Amino acid sequence: MALTSKDQVAEYVAKQRRRQELLHYLVTFASMIVFTVLAFIAVALRKDINDYLIAFFIVTMAVVQVAFQLYYFMHMKEKDHGFPALFIYGGALVVFVTVLAFVTMIWI
Amino acid sequence: MSGTENAGLQAIPNPEKATLEGKNKFLGFWFFLGGETVLFGTLFATFLALRDKVASGPSAHELFSLPLTFLSTIILLTSSLTSVFAILAMKDYKAGAMRLWFWITVLLGLAFLGLEIYEFHEYLGEHFGFTTSAFSSAFYTLVGTHGCHVLFGVLWISELMLQSYKKGITTVTAPKYYVAALYWHFIDVVWVFIFTVVYLLGILGG
Fold it and tell me: Does the B69-206 domain belong in CATH 3.40.50.620?
């Protein structure tokens, strides 16, 4: 079908963009499942692999997965998300300092 | 049905941010999520400081099971995707499809809650109560606060969906659906850290 009018072209572009967006969501979801499965497999293999290596690996998997969730599912990659990023990273900074203090300086 | 009642508004793209009120809801909600990050962060910090203090009660690797945690994780992850689909349908002004995806999200949330209640019930049977040890108090506070958030999300989204039968998708209702979906994703973000830090690191025993 030939695209004759301007409206038809705009509609076609919008449709393609939506299809692209849907594909991004599905790829994001598939990657999150993969990260989760890898983390569980790493723990299931705890008898054969160094514990610290597994701990480092699964925490890395969690951080990567959360980044996907924030940037794709919660749209932080889109424009007009400066303040959301400020709020979340501000919160994350407080959390980082708190967790650091609680695991290094507190003795009970 | 209600998908056509908003036909006159088809021209407005991104209805969730079309009005000043919608934009303010969006900003305010992200500010709230920043505060929630700090709330959960401090609970995580407390848990990390107390997770070895099991007194005479059971420890993490004696309690937790990989299959149950995996199932809960997949359920919550999938519900995150279904709420993305709901928002995509909302942007196309397809009220029926939006409701379908949000109702599926609610069902998955309920399934997650059911598993959590089952899990806590099992732990109580193994004499792992709230006051058993510093570890148990920190565990129930952190995971329980997350569970309460899931319950609140289930009630909130259900209420919005009931309202949507009457009001449909407008520039007034769209911001509500949008921030409810953001909330649901945030719950999933917190769970990713819970299954990693509490369950997986607990089973690891490190």
Answer: no
Angstroms from A3 CA to nearest CA on chain B: 21
* Token reading at B95: 């009220």
Q: What angle do CA B198, A74, B35 make, to 5 degrees?
A: 60
pLDDT tens digits, A33-72: 999 999 999 999 998 889 999 999 999 999 999 999 999 9
> Which residues of chain B make contact with A74, given a CB cutoff of 8 A?
182, 185-186
- The domain ranges of chain B are 69-206
Cα–Cα dist B183/B130, whole Å: 27
Task: Write down the residue that tokens 């999933």 correspond to.
Answer: B188
Residue B81: is it exposed, middle or buried by C-beta count within 10 angstroms (0-12/13-18/19+)? Answer: buried
Work out the minimum CA distance from B43 to partner chain A, whole angstroms: 9
Q: Please state the ipTM of this predicted complex.
A: 0.89
